[in-house]
Each structure stands twice: as structure tokens, then as C-alpha cells.
Amino acid sequence: MTRYTSEEALQLVLDSDEEFTFSSEEEEDSDNERLYFEERLDPGVDISDENAASPSSATRRARSNTVERQKDYKGDGDHQTPVAKRAKTNIQTSNKQSTLSWKTETDIDMVPQTLRFLPAREPGPQLSPADAHTPLSLFKMFFSENAVSTLCHNTNAQAAGAIAKGRKYKWTDISISEMYRYIGLLFYMAMVKMSSISDYWRQDSLFSLPFPATIMSRDRYRTISWNVHMSHPDADKENDRKRGTPEHDRLFRVKPLMDTIRHVCKAIYHPKINLAVDERMVACKAHTGMTQYMKAKPTRWGFKLFVLADSSNGYTLDFSVYTGKNNFPSGHGLSHDAVTSLLDCKVLGSGYHVYMDNFYTSPKLLKDLFAMKFGACGTYRDNRKDCPRDATNSLSKKSARGSIRWIRDGPLVFVKWMDTREVSVCSTIQSAYTGDTAQRRVKTQDAWRTKTFPCPAPVIAYNKHMGGVDLSDQLLQYYTAQHKTMKWYRKIFLHFLDIAATNAFLIHKELCGNMTHKQFMEQLIAELCGVSQKVAPKQTSSDHVPVPGAELGSDAKNICTVGRKICVLCKGQLGSVIEA
């Protein structure tokens, strides 16, 4: 075991901190970025509401800064709109909305234009069911030998640089097979939880685990963990010198492997018709300038990922990591760009139905997706641009449960439904109301009973298909390889492992369907480590070993005693009683 003095341990921490230390300019999030995630507002599409609840100080500062920056002009690509003209446009929009009136469930809505479902490939795994697909072979499609070879090369270069700086530990270059064994140990630790890494190598204890020590030593595991690197250290230094310039890439240390994982996710599986877009958090509190805070999420601090998933099984199709930069290529806001960047017509095809929550949904986004031949459905906020706000005959707090209001605007239909509270949904896929119902438990005369209420078609579809990313997150968390690390990019590396293992399981389930998630992970660990799952139990001295019985004879007393030896355990416990 390698031991360090207090000065060496401190230097170890400082050297690790150097790899995720950013300038104060990059470290501080802008007020608008706090709005995106703490308040879940998007200044690009949200309109301030004077009647809304009192906003936080960050919200007030961001709105003030946004108004100050937009005092004379509002940018939209290369076009600039003067304030007077924009005010006139807002008045015209307000007058238009004031003439609208909400319709009820008794009014008949037009049948929306049906987008023909034309996927670029046959939906499902792009592999032959006739071939033999083991957990390892499917996992190696994401972490191929070429990708792992690059990972080994960069890890060896990182270790050589660390030793040159004075690190005092033994290092031999890691090979591809050893890297696969290391990954197998990470998954093993995900299935067998211990309080600390060193507990996996405890010896002579009731709680000892013999398996990890047969794969590699504890010190070898630690040195690999310290040095695992997805990009070359020399290229990292070159990128770090560009800090503060547009050429600097905050995700440079994870880009090589991230691009590979994203490409394979889309290449070996084609989704079914229903897709979901949502956020995912990868827990991390490192001071990188990219970590975000979301009070509404179970994981509040960490890296923010925008994820596209298949609603039918939770397969992660594509994802992007939010870097904290406040730039909108299209000029329509972060929520708009996050969705459109994940939907590639050339890869997917057309006719897909995309479901999203109220952070993303806006009339502009849904119309743009409709022009791309993607149907969309999602909950929306009343303060979004171009959403009906002042129309007459709207729902009130006293409206009966099950009441429906709707307004159609071309391909868009805005629907409001009174459940325990008002639910607002916008869609380009369904009609407003087609006779669907929803069952709810209600209390009447001091007794609970089930009652049926009319329910809009977009609400039914949203509740059925929106959970694709939530299902994906659930599958990832069952056997996640995540644990505490000192390097921010290793957190993302472990998340890539989770995505690869979970997607490989879902593909195996589609092709074979003969394994549970736990069985799949157990076999994957065994194949990665190059061992067999079946281990013969060790025979101890306390085991009673049977011997052939005595031949039958006329003397009944000798039938069970002749030819047998005295048990060592029984003799030690009973002593002279047996001899007598």
C-alpha cells in the first residue's frame, strides 16, 4: 500500500483541483442561466407577469438586466426590431387574443393534419436477431476496443505526466483487457454496495469480499482511477490556454468518448414513434462553471443533460451537456434550441411525436417542429409568447372538475382541463376532445369512490408518453456506477458507462428477452472480468461428508456403525459419549 505524508496528500488534492479550476468569469453563472434552472424560466420565450408571485432576487435581477439589454433593440438573428414597432406588435397580439374565446367539450374540434410516420430505418435494434448477442458483445458496441484503446493511451499519458510532477506511486501502462476488467469492477461495486472503496479489499473479516482482489489489487485500482482520462493531456493544455475566448471548449476532456457514445446510441437502435425530451442531472459539486442547481429535481446539484429518449422503453437516443454558456444560435431561447438540436430529420425520419414539459413548450417551437414534420405535445405556461392569455370563457378556480376549454390556432390546439388544479397542454397531434375519460378518486359523503371525468386527448397522450426520460433515469439508477470522485470529468465518464450498460440491456431485451436487468449485469461483470459466474463452494473442516453404509446383516446394531468413522466435529463436541 502506498502511503503519503500530509504535504504529499495536500499536493495530490491541489494537482487534482488544477484540472477543474476555471477563471472567475467562467465560474460565475449569469442571472439568465439561474433563471433557466432555479426558476425554470426562459427569458427567450417567457413574458413577465405582473400578477405572478413575487420572484426571487435572481429572477428580478435577470429580468432587469434583460430589459436593460433590450432597451433599444431585440436581436433575432440578423434582424433588429425597434421598440416602437415591437410595442405596436404586442398591442396587436393582445387585441387579437382578446377577441378569442375558449370553447368547451361540447364544441367539435377539427381533425388535425396527420403526419405520416416515415422512419429512416425500421424501428428497433439495428442488429440481426439470428446472431448470438451476449451482454459483453452489446456493451462493446458502445465501448469498442478502438474506443478503449484511445482511453488506455490517454490514461497512460496522464499517469506519465503525474509521475513527472512527482507523484509517488508505481505505474505500469494499462492494457485494453485490464481496462475492461477495471470497468467490470466498477459495475461490480455498483451491484455490491460497500461504505468505502477500501472495504472491497478487506481481508480476514466476516464482511470480506474475495472477488475484487482476484481481479486487481487495491492500489492498482486506485492508480487507474486517479489517472483515467478521455482526452490527451497535451491537448488539454492547449485547450486550457484558450480560456476566455470563443475557441475554448469546456467539454474538451470528455468530448472524444462522448461523441462516440452519442453516435453509437443512434446507430444501433432506431426509436418507435413516441419520443420524450427532458432534463437529467449527473450529481457533482465541482467548481467547473458548468454545474447547475435545480431545486425541483431529486439531484439538485450537478451537470445538466438534455436527453432524448424512446418513450416505449427508456432507451437514451441522444443527449447534450449544458455548459453554462448563454448563447442562442437561433435567437429563440435555450428551451427551443435544446429540443431542435436533439432532433435530426436525416437520422430519425419524419412523423415522430415528441413530448415535453412546460420548460420547453412554446407555440414557436411546436410550429417549427410541425414544419420539420414532427408532431409535438407538452404542457405550457400562460406567460409564454403567443399563448392565449386574455381570451374569454376561460376556466376559473370555481370551475367543476373535468371542465374543458380549448382554442385552435392553425395546427396548434391549446387545451385547459380542470383536475385538482388547472392543467394546460398544447399539441399539434391530437384534437381537443375525442370522448376520452379519466378516473379519479373523490370523497363523497365521508367515503372515497372512483368517479369518471371527461379528459382531453392531449392530456391522455401526454400522461402516457412523457415518462420516457424518467424511465431511462430509473433504469440508470438501479445499478449506477456513480460514486464520489475528485475529478469532474470522471463523473461524466461513469455516466457514460451507465448509459452504455443500460442501453445494451434494453437492446438485449428486445432481441432475446430472456434476462432480467440484474441477470444481465451479473453476466456482463463476469464477462468483462474474464471469470465464470459459477464458483464451486469451498469445503470446510466442519462439513459432514457421507461415507458408504455398512452391508446389511442379521445384527441390527451394526447396520449403522460398521464401516463408518467417528466424525471429528461430533467427537470434539460430545467427547466420551461417542466412544462409549
Describe the structure.
By secondary structure, the chain is α+β, with helices and mostly antiparallel strands. The protein is 38% helix and 15% strand. It contains 21 helices and 17 strands. The strands form five sheets. Strands 6, 7, 8, 9, 11, 12, 13, 14 and 15 form a nine-stranded mixed β-sheet that branches. A two-stranded antiparallel sheet has the order 1-2. Strands 3-10 form a two-stranded antiparallel sheet. Strand 13 and strand 14 form a beta hairpin. Helix 6 crosses helix 18, helix 7 packs across helix 10 and helix 12 packs parallel to helix 18. The longest helix is centred in the C-terminal third of the chain and has 24 residues.
What is the topology?
Elements: H1 6-18, H2 24-27, H3 31-37, H4 57-69, E1 73-76, E2 79-82, H5 83-98, E3 118-119, E4 124-125, H6 135-142, H7 145-164, H8 176-191, H9 211-215, H10 218-227, H11 233-240, H12 255-267, E5 269-270, E6 274-283, E7 292-293, E8 301-310, E9 316-321, H13 334-340, H14 345-348, E10 349-350, E11 353-356, H15 363-371, E12 375-379, E13 404-409, E14 412-418, E15 422-427, E16 437-444, E17 447-454, H16 457-465, H17 468-478, H18 488-511, H19 517-529, H20 568-574, H21 576-579
Parallel strand pairs: 6-11, 11-12
Antiparallel strand pairs: 1-2, 3-10, 4-5, 6-8, 7-8, 8-9, 12-15, 13-14, 14-15, 16-17
Span between termini: 55 Å
Number of strands: 17
In helices, the fraction of residues equals: 25-40%
- Overall geometry comes to globular
Please compute the radius of gyration using only Cα atoms: 31 Å
User: Describe the biggest sheet?
Assistant: 9 strands, mixed
